[in-house]
Amino acid sequence: ARDIHLAVVAGDGIGTEVVEQGLLVLDAALAGSGVGVSTTDFDLGARRWHATGETLTDTDLDAIRTHDAILLGAIGDPSVPSGVLERGLLLKLRFALDHYVNLRPGKLFPGVASPLAHPGDVDFVVVREGTEGPYVGNGGAIRVGTPHEVANEVSVNTAFGVERVVRDAFARAAARPRKKLTLVHKHNVLVHAGHLWRRTVEAVNAEFPDVTVDYLHVDAATIFLVTNPSRFDVIVTDNLFGDILTDLAAAITGGIGLAASANINPDRTAPSMFEPVHGSAPDIAGQGKADPTATVLSVALLLDHLGLHTQAKAVEDAVAADLAGRGSAERVRSTAEVGKDLAARVAG
Ligand code: IPM
Ligand code: MN
């Protein structure tokens, strides 16, 4: 086994705090496996932008490309105008590295409190398209600031882009016990894109005959995520619907402090990127209060992606055990304490 060359983008706010713990757990998971980790830190985010005006240069991108994977903490700061780092850094990484599968598990671990009275057995995964939709920046505004302003954000959906993410979602569904795929869209209104998604799902279903398919409009999907989340197994949806649904998924499975994600390039033409769903949380940054669990679960997704399934399982098991014990804990632990406890559990 060869060493993992990991690009680390700790980023802003609590990003640096949670990434430190993620790396600690990664080291613990790999101890004795013969696989080492070497990390390269990339200074990206608000500090860099203030100092140089740069978000992500071609030189940064080329350097990142030479790595096996990326671990990202969080990007964004109130001192930077909205959209600058989101578009110029985070989305640029996802687009440039062709992260067309944005994988976001929605799993309610035993012992974790859900705001739902009767959540049931919640264990689904959202396959959110990562490179198209309204996120591409295809749009524009005219007569800005006047009563006659027109502002357009065009959602781009290509046959190529839809088919490749749908095929990935089918493959994931086929590998799960329930083998169920739910397409979420809004084809009663968004007729052009909606029908492309629907036709594509129908066509690709022929390659995966044992996968059961159903369909929900996105508004109805939000109802079922609250009233009957256990009905979901794999959800496939576009970039924006996926963004919104996965925050709701996080809310019903214990909150954003536990929600992990993987931005995957399934063709492996560039490194995939692993990041907690939460943001930089400037309100609690620097206080050692952030829960590093979402990052640690993202590390498990990273290990899985690199084929280190035993180690990935060990990390997830450690998180499960830690979460199961939280209800009876006498106090809330700091970021570093949670990281240390998880690393100790992983080390066994
Ligand atoms: C997420 C975030 C990003 C997104 C933002 C920060 C651009 O909300 O990762 O879910 O919309 O994808
Ligand atoms: Mn989001």
From TrEMBL:
Mg(2+) binds at D219, D243, D247. Binds 1 Mg(2+) or Mn(2+) ion per subunit. Its main location: cytoplasm. Gene3D superfamilies: Isopropylmalate Dehydrogenase. GO terms for biological process: L-leucine biosynthetic process. Keywords: Amino-acid biosynthesis, Branched-chain amino acid biosynthesis, Cytoplasm, Leucine biosynthesis, Magnesium, Manganese, Metal-binding, NAD, Oxidoreductase. Residues 5-342 form the Isopropylmalate dehydrogenase-like domain. Substrate binds at R94, R104, R128, D219. Its EC number is 1.1.1.85. InterPro entries: ICDH/IPMDH (IPR050501), IsoCit/isopropylmalate_DH_CS (IPR019818), IsoPropMal-DH-like_dom (IPR024084), LeuB_actb (IPR023698). GO terms for molecular function: 3-isopropylmalate dehydrogenase activity; magnesium ion binding; NAD binding. SUPFAM superfamilies: Isocitrate/Isopropylmalate dehydrogenase-like. Pfam families: Iso_dh. NAD(+) binds at G279, S280, A281, P282, D283, I284, A285, G286, Q287, G288, K289, A290, D291. It is an enzyme of class 1 (oxidoreductase). HAMAP family: LeuB_type2 (MF_01035). Belongs to the isocitrate and isopropylmalate dehydrogenases family. LeuB type 2 subfamily. This is 3-isopropylmalate dehydrogenase. It comes from Cellulomonas persica.
